[in-house]
Amino acid sequence: HLLRRQMVRNCRKPLIIMTPKSLLRHKLCVSSIDDLTSGGFKRVLPEIDEINASVVERVIVCSGKIFYELLEARRLNRTNNIAILCIEQLYPFPGEQLNELLSQYENTNELIWCQEEPKNQ
């Protein structure tokens, strides 16, 4: 979707992709054929597991490889009160799309930004 969108745009800008090679082979980092043929680029990925929005107490927003690490940890611990949203495009920031997804978690009392770098870097 990213490459297709880059070619369809009228204005040509440099495309910079920052991603680790490990995501190329990650078992959870996949798209269905339907996503590729009829879907479009999503700036924010919604929660992918079946989680009841009314029991979610914490929403974690992240970007990149850490999304899959958080997802695996949540599944391993069988936690169902934490939602994980992944921002796929940081600039321009997808505020509208993020607010739309956050609005479904009415009982949430914590919103966390998670990134993989330690505080001191």
TrEMBL record:
Keyword Oxidoreductase carried by entry: yes
InterPro entries: 2oxoglutarate_DH_E1 (IPR011603), KGD_C_sf (IPR042179), ODO-1/KGD_C (IPR031717), THDP-binding (IPR029061)
PANTHER family the UniProt entry points to: 2-OXOADIPATE DEHYDROGENASE COMPLEX COMPONENT E1, 2-OXOGLUTARATE DEHYDROGENASE
Keyword Oxidoreductase listed: yes
UniProt record similarity statement: Belongs to the alpha-ketoglutarate dehydrogenase family.
Domain of life: Eukaryota
Cofactor(s) essential for the protein: thiamine diphosphate
Domain called 2-oxoglutarate dehydrogenase E1 component/KDG C-terminal: residue spans: 30-121
Entry protein name: 2-oxoglutarate dehydrogenase E1 component-like
Keyword terms: Oxidoreductase, Thiamine pyrophosphate
Pfam families, per the entry: OxoGdeHyase_C
